[in-house]
Amino acid sequence: MAWVETMIKKLCVFCGSSPYTDPKYHATAEELAKLMVSNGIGLVYGGSNIGTMKVIADCVLNAGGEAVGIMPQILVDKEIAHPRLTELHIVDSMHARKALMAELSDGFIALPGGIGTLEELFEILAWALLEIHKKPCGVLNAHQYYQKLIDFLNHAAAEHFIKEEHHSILIMEEDPEILLERMNGYRAPKVRKWTGKK
Ligand code: AMP
Predict the structure, then answer these.
(1) What whole-number distance in Å separates Cα of residue 33 and Cα of residue 42?
(2) Torsion angle in degrees (nearest 10) through CA of 164, 124, 116, 81
(3) Across the beta sheet with 107-110, what order do the strands follow?
(4) pLDDT tens column, 100-125
(5) Where are the domains of the chain?
(6) pLDDT tens column, 155-167
(7) In this structure, are strands 67-72 and 170-173 parallel, antiparallel, or unpaired?
């Protein structure tokens, strides 16, 4: 499905670098990639040529879309940069990588991934909660990979370690099309400051 107009022109996708995951997760990455290209949305990602990161970049490029990679020099050798990207930015540090990913993108999605993916998702989410940016943050709960994390976030909110607004700030869906549609319609809520009162 193509939308008439998308607010998101560049989407940052955080996802796993592991080559050993179930192919069912690759299928979801491909579905998201095709949806992005058919709606004129470019990919911004970590720039690797392994795991789900390779799958989404390959699929975007093969469908005629644009894929921009951002890698710190220390990872260019370790993870192997994708050789066919529209653009590859080589930066000085992991911090610079995330800062540039945030700057170049209109929204962020975490596909299934490991520690790197979680770290990237939570940093960008923390920046949304602090109103450092007002861009939509989503989790693609493919095959319910993130269900235990979502349950934990609900628990943390019930225990008042996370404000209720996290529910509207972090958009969580199992279907890529529904997730992208919700992200397109996202308007950043006003985040309350802790006041000392409940
Ligand atoms: P993973 O989800 O662990 O497979 O990692 C996905 C991507 O995140 C890989 O490109 C990792 O190198 C990257 N990564 C891991 N830690 C960080 C970090 N602190 N900042 C930026 N990228 C990271």
Answers:
(1) 9
(2) 150
(3) 87-91, 67-72, 42-45, 10-14, 107-110, 137-140, 170-173
(4) 999 999 999 999 999 999 999 999 99
(5) 12-184
(6) 999 998 888 777 7
(7) unpaired
End-to-end CA distance of the chain: 43
Distances in whole angstroms, Cα of residue 52 to Cα of each of 26, 49, 96, 187: 6, 9, 22, 29
Whether this prediction's pTM lies above 0.90 is answered by yes
Question: What mean pLDDT, rounded, does the chain reach?
Answer: 92
Atom of ligand 1 nearest to the CA of 17: 4
Q: Architecture of domain 12-184 in CATH?
A: 3-Layer(aba) Sandwich (3.40)
- What residue owns the CA closest to ligand 1's atom 10? 46
Among 94, 118, 123, 140, residue to substitute to test ligand 1 (most atoms within 8 Å of Cβ): 94
